[in-house]
Write a structure and sequence with these properties.
heterodimer, A: 241 residues, alpha/beta, 11 helices, 46% helix, B: 249 residues, TIM Barrel, globular
């Protein structure tokens, strides 16, 4: 049976720090080439320029393309909790939120980050955060627990796998992006010690090639049921797709 | 997709790592990983040599190789011990499965163009050995470029500069005995093709950094780059076979 893959980590738009200029249709074409049925995505304008019009651009692009699931973002430096922007995003129909703490260089220890997380927990919207240091993994575990919110931890590498497994076992609302578990048996070890129910697949298109992460998932020595969970079932459940 | 194409992997390791969670680190585990990615020949350095002690690590590697005909060995060299490194080269240069020397100048804190390295390189050159060198910065690449162009030795630029590849690779553009191995934990889109555009496909080789990194990760970078089947055959087999003097069909 063909693997149904949902990619939780993509963007579209232009990126001034790289020669990247990807339209939503370019993203769709790449998904088709790689056999990816749906992708969670957002406009680069929301990350780099102005979050509200950028979120609107995301919404419009995804509204006419059912394969794309819109993700929203807000910059914590430009956030006032009492403006109610997180509930408004939920009201608009967004199902997922992304922090870009690595790209934008802010700390997860900011109180505004906690305020956003608290509101995400209140409206039941999962989110994704970047692990910029090994300490960030446990930090995300504590944040998920304290704010009653599901967090997907991304930007992992082979160096932190022991920490990932240890935190995952104790913090059930923390999920992990399997797309960058690059050690030869990284996915297998996680599945054995924690379970496939806590992994999702993200390619980081268009920054990264999709094929390396996809090949690792396709070839991992796990059951087909576990592979399908990681490829799509977990994110479908998390986002209510 | 050319996953079924047979491959020679110029950059692999065997042995335990204290700094990462990898449980399957033995020679048999490496053999199993090779099969998964259709790697017919793997060129290895031992982690004991790479991280701690050159002599016992080299000894373990070359003793085990005799049981694994699909594997080849790099003699690890330590610039703080140039004489001992030269003795290691003399000891193993005649081994039927040796392909070259390997080192990491940054780890040792010795510049690649320092006299200690030059002595070692000259010894390897006398024996017709290639070299795989960990290349993670512009500074290291400049040192390598200044030395290697005058040697009759094939140099594999391990990692091609990692995140600094845009500045590192052009330093080797006009050095015909340098070859690019792109393994890296970042799968930056378009990197493999861009490097080939700078040095030429004929100076690209497959190095995966297994058992540290899943070999499919780097193979995926090549497969995504839009190389023709003939170009992939060159990268996966013909160029490594030639520059490491493997003599395979």
């Amino acid at each position: 049976m063909a693997l149904n893959v949902i990619d939780v980590k993509t963007i579209f738009g232009s990126w001034p720090k790289r020669a990247i200029d990807v339209s939503p249709d370019d993203l769709l074409a790449s998904m088709r080439r790689h056999g990816i049925s749906r992708a969670v995505s957002l406009a680069s304008a929301a990350i780099l320029y102005d979050d509200q019009p950028g979120n609107d651009e995301t919404w419009e692009a995804c509204a006419s393309r059912p394969e794309l699931v819109p993700a929203a973002t807000l910059h914590p430096y430009n956030y006032l909790a009492d403006e109610g922007r997180v509930p408004a995003l939920k009201e608009q129909g967004f199902r997922f939120f992304r922090f870009f703490n690595k790209l934008l260089g802010y700390s997860l220890d900011l109180y505004c980050v906690t305020q956003i997380l608290r509101q995400l927990g209140q409206v039941g919207m999962p989110c994704m955060m970047d692990a910029t240091s090994p300490e960030d993994i446990w930090r995300m575990g504590r944040l998920s627990q304290a704010n009653d919110v599901d967090i997907i931890c991304t930007e992992l590498g082979y160096i932190v796998e022991a920490e990932v497994i240890a935190v995952a076992r104790d913090y059930p609302r923390l999920y992990f992006d399997a797309g960058h578990m690059t050690s030869p048996d990284g996915i297998e070890l996680f599945v054995r010690h924690v379970g496939a129910h806590r992994l999702v697949y993200g390619s980081d298109y268009p920054f990264d090639d999709t094929l390396p992460s996809l090949l690792m998932l396709q070839q991992a020595a796990i059951s087909e049921a576990d592979r399908q969970r990681i490829a799509s079932a977990n994110i479908e459940e998390l986002l209510g797709l | 997709m050319s996953l079924s194409m047979e491959k020679i992997d110029c950059h692999t390791h065997v042995g335990p790592y204290y700094l990462v969670l990898i449980r399957e680190t033995g020679f048999a585990d490496l053999a199993e990983l090779m099969q998964r990615a259709n790697i017919k020949v793997a060129c290895i350095s031992h982690t004991q040599s790479v991280f701690h002690e050159m002599v016992p690590g080299n000894a373990k590697l070359f003793a085990a190789l005799e049981r694994y005909p699909q594997m080849r060995g790099y003699i690890y060299v330590d610039p703080h011990r140039p004489q001992a490194s030269i003795e290691e080269i003399e000891k193993y240069a005649g081994h039927p499965q040796v392909v070259g020397i390997k080192s990491r100048s940054v780890y040792h804190g010795v510049p690649f163009d320092a006299p200690e390295y030059i002595q070692i390189l000259k010894a390897a050159e006398r024996h017709g050995l290639a070299m795989l060198h960990h290349t993670d910065s512009v500074e290291v690449a400049r040192q390598m470029a200044s030395v290697i162009r005058d040697l009759d030795m094939n140099l594999i630029v391990g990692h091609s500069g990692l995140a600094a590849w845009r500045s590192v690779v052009p330093l080797f553009a006009d050095i015909p005995n340098s070859y690019m191995d792109i393994c890296c934990s970042i799968a930056e889109a378009g990197r493999a093709r861009a490097i080939a555009d700078i040095v030429g496909v004929e100076r690209m080789v497959l190095g995966t950094d297994m058992n540290l990194i899943n070999p499919l990760w780097t193979i995926g970078m090549f497969e995504a780059a839009g190389f023709s089947e003939a170009e992939l055959r060159q990268i996966y087999w013909e160029t490594p076979n030639r520059i490491l003097k493997l003599g395979l069909a």
